[in-house]
Design goal:
Elements (H helix, E strand, L loop, with lengths): L2 H17 L4 E5 L15 E5 L5 H4 L1 H27 L8 H14 L2 H10 L11
Parallel strand pairs: 1-2
Helix pairs in contact: 3-4, 3-5
Length: 130
């Protein structure tokens, strides 16, 4: 996400929170593109995560993507083996690739996601705001 998109989103989200009379905390990773520039939200507090800490607290970084990639690669390898056995070029079209993505994501079990959220202490996490 570019800083321009983030700034636009923050301003819009801040307006929504102001209308709802809510104050929120947003955790933001420390990527350079996350600069908020001149944005001064009234109903949002931004906290930047320390460098190289996202894999410790973001389950998607901690292994859910890896589980998805393994499932996708299994399908891709099966497809390429089938092509080789049939003496066909080892290619896939966009429709096949999207189907593989859908199938790979469906193969990532709820247990996998639960395990990674538990490992990263996402469950039972409470923030107290005064």
């Amino acid at each position: 996400m570019s800083s321009v998109i983030l700034q636009y989103w923050l301003n819009d989200f801040n307006r929504q929170m102001k209308r709802a009379n809510r104050k929120v905390i947003l955790l933001v990773d420390n990527a350079a593109s996350r600069s908020v520039g001149e944005v001064q939200p009234t109903n949002e507090t931004l906290y930047y995560l320390p460098p190289k800490s996202t894999s410790n607290i973001q389950p998607i970084d901690a292994g859910i993507i890896q589980a998805f990639n393994v499932q996708y690669m299994k399908q891709l390898i099966r497809k390429f083996i089938s092509c080789a056995e049939d003496d066909q070029p080892q290619t896939i079209n966009l429709r096949e690739a999207l189907y593989m993505v859908k199938t790979a994501w469906a193969s990532v079990t709820g247990t996998t996601i639960t395990n990674y959220t538990t490992i990263t202490c996402i469950t039972n996490y409470t923030v107290s705001v005064s």
